[in-house]
Amino acid sequence: MAKRVTYRVVLALAAVAFLVQPAGAQDFDSADDGEPTGTAGRLFDHFVVKGGVITWFILIPLSVATLALIIEHSASIRRVTLMAEQAVQSLQGHLQNKRYVDAVKYASQDDSMLGYVIHAAMSEASHGFAAMERAVEDAIEERSARLYRKIEYLNIIGSVSPMVGLFGTVYGLIRLFASISQAGGIPEPARMADDISIALVTTFWGLLVAIPALSAFALFRNRIELLSAECALTAEKLLSVLRPGQPEAVAMPEAAAMPGTS
User: Fold this and answer.
1) Lowest CB count within 10 Å: 165, 166, 188, 192, which one?
2) How far is CA 262 from the centre of its chain?
3) What is the pLDDT of residues 175-199, one digit of tens each?
4) CA 204 and chain centroid, separation
5) What is the DSSP string of 20-70?
6) What distance, in Å, lies between the first and last C-alpha atoms of the chain?
7) Global confidence as pTM
8) Using one digit for the tens of pLDDT, what is the confidence trace for 207-251?
């Protein structure tokens, strides 16, 4: 469901951006002297329109995807979604009151990381507590790896965006030097500085997209590490009632470990 929402957000924002682009271009073309009027118009023309296709590629697909991913990850990678307090209390109540079948059923229906970990652990209850501990470790590692793969797209965008911007800058400089060669002399310094400035625009936008993408990637990576460790400790605490040698520990019936395991 989260992936579907992300794709829909990306497509919607991209569609809006593509619809806005022609309208903006039309406004500039309608000027009497062919140049945009006003400070905002000149800045837009210099930083976007004259940057060409590479600028639009950075601004539309890459920046929109970065924004959509940050919004989606901010909503999905947090404590309330990975191990809700209600899930912790419900599982704790089932286990402490020896309602093991109910605990397995509840965990199997819970899509959070904690529910997945508890279900995986209790599915191995018939093999002993050591097997349950290994199941907790494996489940935490699996879910963490899945979350790391999920945020890796931000790392890719953050690494690719500056390279795309640099490509645009190199291409712009090549065209500049080619025009100087064809003109047979050095143009006016002001015109040359303006052309170089336009060539550097794509690198500017590439860095502007890469900085928040890489920052968000680092933030979500640290959040995953923190919540994974917290989930492991919470699962260990919940399952401690089944640890051999504990006063409240009892042997979990094999039948209790079976529902929802297939």
Assistant:
1) 188
2) 32
3) 888 888 887 777 777 777 878 888 8
4) 22
5) HHHHHHHHHHTSTTSS--SHHHHHHIIIIITTHHHHHHIIIIIHHHHHHHH
6) 23
7) 0.76
8) 999 999 999 999 999 999 999 999 999 999 999 998 876 555 444
